[in-house]
Every structure is written in structure tokens, then in C-alpha cells.
Amino acid sequence: ALPIWKAMSMILENKRIDNDFFLIKVKADGRDTKKGQFYMLRGWNAYPTLSRPISVYDSDDTSVSFLIKIVGEGTKMLSEMNVGDDISITGPLGNGFPGDIKGKIALVGGGVGIAPLYKSAKDYKLDKDNVVDVYLGFSTPPILEEEYKEVCDNLTINVGGFITDDIDTTKYNHILTCGTEIMMKVLYK
Asked: Which secondary-structure segment (H or E) carries 75?
């Protein structure tokens, strides 16, 4: 079992990507963080009272990064935090994606569901025999294209349509997805 810890951490970076998304990096030992896991983040002491579950975008031995979409008061407050601010983090949580799969792998995400696919692609590409294709669907202009291109073999982006229309599911040994329920149902079928 992976250690789950709750700690006060510090924001190392809070970078606005576009009007809706920002990338926040916190000081933490992320070596035990598996692809597809999440943390609970909290940067306030009052309302909203609940921490926010946020997928891991990337991690290393000194930091954990999160790609966050502003959807409510809690994520808006996180977007306004500054480098050096204290932030409460609990994690890593969840089972994450399988670590031992091999072959042709498709990673499919829509909207903020693209967040866990960056670390996943990077980690699966550590095995040079794996072919990792990433499919990203957006309803607004795409983000982080160059970053995703660096960690996969092929990147497909769909804006305004259905990313599932761009995938030939028969050519993959494994398909992993994060996003809307309807997208996951289509891929499953």
C-alpha cells in the first residue's frame, strides 16, 4: 500500500494556462504518486469547507503538479493563490491506472479529464517497447499541446466534436480514459 499523507505544503508555481485552466505545482515528495491518482487540495480555512479532489498532472521527487479547471469557488480560490502560499494536500488517493500494461496504449481525455494523461503517457513511455497515443477532446481552444507531444508517440486533438470519433479502438491493446461518463461509455462499447 502506498503511503497516504496529509501535510501542509507550499506552492512552488501557479501558472495560468488560459481563462479556464491553471497549473499549480506544490512542494511534496511525489515519488509514490501513481499515474491516474489524485490529491485533496485546500488553501483556505473557512468557506468552502471541503477540500477539492484534483488529479495529478505530474510528479517527481520534490513536487506534485495539478492541472485545474476553474468550475466553482474552491477552484477559483486555488487559482488565486501565490507562490510561497501554504496549501493543505492529502494524498495520493485512488487506485490510479495500471502500472504493468504493455503494447499499444491509447490515453483518452476530455476537458479537465486530460490532466492525469500527461504523467500516464510519460510513465508508460519509460518502457521503450510501448506505443502511447494520446487523444484529447476540447470544447474550447486546446491547451498544453506541445507538452503532451513531448511525452507520447502520437497526439490527436479534437475541438468541438467527439474525440471518440478519432479513435480506432481495434488497434490498441489497452485504452485508458478520464473524462465525461458518455465518453467513457462510448469507448467501452
From this structure: helix 73-79
Based on its alpha-carbon atoms, the radius of gyration of the chain, rounded to whole angstroms, reads 16
- Mean pLDDT across the stretch 52-56? 96
The string of pLDDT tens digits covering residues 126-136 is 999 999 999 99
Q: Is the dihedral of CA 91, 97, 98, 101 positive or negative?
A: negative
Peptide bond into 92 cis (omega under 30): yes
Q: What is the pLDDT of residue 7?
A: 78
Q: Please check the confidence at residue 2 and state whether its pLDDT lies above 60.
A: no
Confidence category of residue 145, pLDDT binned at 50, 70, 90 = very high
How far, in Å, CA of 93 to CA of 4, rounded? 7
Q: Let me know: does 155 contact 132? Beta carbons within 8 Å.
A: no
How many other CB atoms are found less than 10 A from the CB of residue 70? 18
Query: In whole angstroms, what is the distance from residue 24 CA to residue 59 CA?
Result: 11
φ/ψ bin of 26: left (φ > 0), alpha (ψ from -120 to 50), beta (otherwise): beta
Are 11 and 84 a contacting pair, CB within 8 Å?
yes
